[in-house]
């Protein structure tokens, strides 16, 4: 799909941008790492924990360069793109460490440069390498990435697909107000600003309802309807799909003509620049997903998550180039699909979570016709907010997780105050991976228990005997780092 998102002119501009990047990095090797995921998947926490552990020499035994003591230091530098907001690492770490609250979610694109000084494991490489790598971390909302397929779709295609999606059983109740309003809109009627506004607001409300915890739906373009930023209220965001669109060209001055023009403006001024200026410049990518939330919501949510991951993968440019082609075109050669919040489960269920994500990723790769890049999966927690234990229940010993639930979280009728530590049995994931994707109906109709979890506060950091605060604890963050950047530190 990525090849259909650009014109010849776009490709020429991408080649010039890439050549400029290569020239700038000729004497200072760099790697652009994209971090994305749908809302509440933990992008901000992942980046903060990654940087914090590398800067503070965290416990990363699976990152070979760290384990062997070859990393001399890691530090932040000024990012190379002055027009992109800086990722506010210091503020996010202060929220995690000092206030023990989760930082605000990603609302727009941001960037941070982390430079790692290291000694190569190879004597030959030490002769020709400065032993310095700058990792430019690009953080962006997954909802924006889901807009990229719109570049290859007409307004009629967009409207038809949106109406079909809204009619799905898992969405029909949520979309009913918008569908009722859209059914009264005559595409051939005269364009009217207030009609366009009511339709856009109703459609956006439906998309936002799909994101609620109990629904956990993922495929929700246009993404800026959920995260409008400085475009809120602009004509480029004041459009919506229409029903009963005529096959002929819309009449000038009609409602359909207005909606088509604004849809095309959205693609031209919002979606395409994002693709050209950011996505086509990435070398590596991690896609974070909240699989537990989708599992909790049921098979329909899992199917929707798989659809979203498929569309995300279809927008990347995978593959490996050579010395010549790399001067003009960047390709993503490694993608990691990571299920976050593994600390909400006992470690006995981690392999099951990873198997579920492996199945989801494999199917998404196949459906996206995605090839040419290494794709791996991991179940992880960038910041581990719980520890494990056991409790006796009659003659049975149950594995539990222990942590401080967020204020207002509820389980079994108990509401937590945000201060009290408690032990919770979260349940077990299904043994059979197929059951997650193929069950029809709710969890209550299945023989497998539902996964029910509460959200926990960030952990209180441990201190050494000398009073030194240790780095943020994690689950498999080191494995993720080894896959994403380990070969560049060899």
What is the structure about, briefly put?
By secondary structure, this protein is of the alpha/beta class. The chain is 36% helix and 15% strand. The strands form three sheets. Strands 2-3-4-1-5-6-7 form a seven-stranded mixed β-sheet. It has a three-stranded antiparallel β-sheet with strand order 8-9-12, with no helix packed on it. A two-stranded antiparallel ribbon has the order 10-11.
Question: What distinguishing features does this structure have?
Answer:
490 residues, 7-stranded mixed sheet, 3-stranded antiparallel sheet, 15 helices, globular
Describe the protein in words.
The chain has 490 residues and is α/β, with parallel strands linked by helices. 36% of the residues lie in helices and 15% in strands. The chain is built from 15 helices and 12 strands. The strands form 3 sheets. The protein has a 7-stranded mixed β-sheet. A 3-stranded antiparallel β-sheet has the order 8-9-12, with no helix packed on it. α13 links the parallel β6 and β7. α8 runs antiparallel to α9 (193-210), α11 packs antiparallel against α12 (299-314) and α12 packs across α13. The longest helix has 23 residues, at 255-277. The two termini are 33 Å apart. Residues 440-449 have low confidence and may be disordered.
**Element-by-element helix/strand order:** HEHHEHEHEHHHHHEHHEHEEEEEEHH
Number of E-state strands: 12
Count of individual helical segments: 15
How would a textbook summarize the main sheet? Answer: 7 strands, mixed
Which segments are poorly predicted (pLDDT under 50) over 5 or more consecutive residues? 440-449
Q: Roughly how much helix do the residues carry, as a percent range? A: 25-40%
Q: What kind of oligomer do you see?
A: single chain
**C-alpha-based Rg, rounded:** 24 Å
Strand order in the sheet with the most strands: 2-3-4-1-5-6-7
Query: Which structural class matches the secondary elements?
Result: alpha/beta
Give the percentage of residues in beta strands.
5-15%
How far apart the termini lie comes to 33 Å
Inertia-based shape: globular
